[in-house]
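Appendix B. One record, verbatim.
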Amino acid sequence: MVGLLKLMTNNSTVLALKYRPQTFNDLIGQEVIAETINNSIKYNKSPNAYLFTGIRGVGKTTIARIVAKSLNCENGAEKLCKDNFCMHCKSIINSNHIDVLEMDAASKTGVDDVRDLIEFSRYGPTSAKYKIFIIDEVHMLSKQAFNALLKTLEEPPKYLKFIFATTEIKKIPITVVSRCQRFDLSRVKTEKLFQYIKKISEQENGKISEDAIKLIVKISEGSVRDALSLLDRGLVSNSEGEELNLKKAQKIYGYFDKSSLIEIFNNIFKGEEDKVISIYRKIYEAGVEPKIFLNDFLEILYFIKNISSIKLDGTNFTLNDEEFDAINMISKQIDSKDIILFWQFTIETINELEIVANPNLCIEMFLVRLMYLKDYNKKTKKDSIINYENLNDENNEKKTPLNYKIVDQIKNITQQDKLKPNIKSKDTTSKLSINSFEKLIEFCIKKKEIKLKYELEFNVNLVTFAEGRIEIAFNENLDKDFIKDLSNKLYEWTNKRWIISLTKKKGLITKKQEEKINKDKIFENVKKSKIYNKVLEILPDSELIEFKINEDEKND
């Protein structure tokens, strides 16, 4: 009876709790942070206070508990409990450890709550090595509460650790942030999240198509918890024995088919106002919110503009083959300048949704405006007398209407200025020379650009490297902001604009792969050495596990 009760309880647990990571190795998408924290604990260099920030559901509270377990586990951080939990780990998981206090700052925001906490911190741990305070949603604390924390944060007792978690880092006073070791948790990459959700669905014996999983991944926006909750909802909502396909998933999650949106585009270009409005009303009646509609509209615009560079398999989870072909056809018929204008109008409409009483009518007028804009541009291209010279267009014979010129000028001046890194330097000459890929990695280490260093070592397959130009083979694991971040940093370091491009050419193996191959070769050579064979003669049961190269003998 007890065994049955345990089984029933386990099966009834929501997936987000059931598959909550228990060790650093269980985490997905946060490898750099996990490795950094694990090493700091392993070598007794853990900070007084941790600060974890990131969107909802990426693992802030989970990592906080793993840190608490690593600091207090009876087996130590290297052999952290995973299955057979020690007394401390078990109590931390169940949130009833006497020395590990979890506090929700959303419900305890006052200075009195913090003063009670500080008073409690004066007493050493009862049974564990460290007394740990985990404060979730720490940005909800009042200004007075933060001020009360400052002194304790700066000079805490050796046995005391603070772990803060927040989704709103900007709301935390800089004086508090500066006293913590900050970790920014990133969204989990699409491919990793897809493989994870697919694995969980198989473990749960859930019949769900890959297209439905892709939809879950898209809606979750990089949040593991959201993805697991959506999977849980889909498996529960679906009839027993039937597969949860894409159409069923769209109905369950209130999501609409992209083909309807593509059809709207086609009718906009045909000038079919009645059909455009009719299709949109069907989408609205299906329960799709106006803001979601506009965000998907922006996504389609992006695909139309960049369809030639989009790889359908593996990198794009939102388009099937038919939709891909339809968008490819539209991209050949529409001018790039029209796409930019459509994008600007869509952004403006998203802002309008916040102030209008009826968002639905706002969307309908938006679609009518797009049709007018399309027809107006066609009409005025021939008749306008304004030259493109002012817009840096090479073809000076083309004309543009006055309103078009203004929009493009605003885009070219104000938006591009925002994108430029805010770097002021009187010296126009190069600050330094980075003439090799290895030197670039070394400089990232010197400047403490850990994230860039990680991407360069783990995810960059180099094709060519020259000063001022880097060519990289396409890698779906590469962070979406990597090229922009690297370009800005290189400009900051060298005072030169670097051209960084992605290519379909096959690149070299990554630095970490190269490092592993070299290490394996050395490992085999060591096993063939005379010294190792002599050791085996004396200790026949011994085995080579690790080796270290003496720095003095490295070049011998």
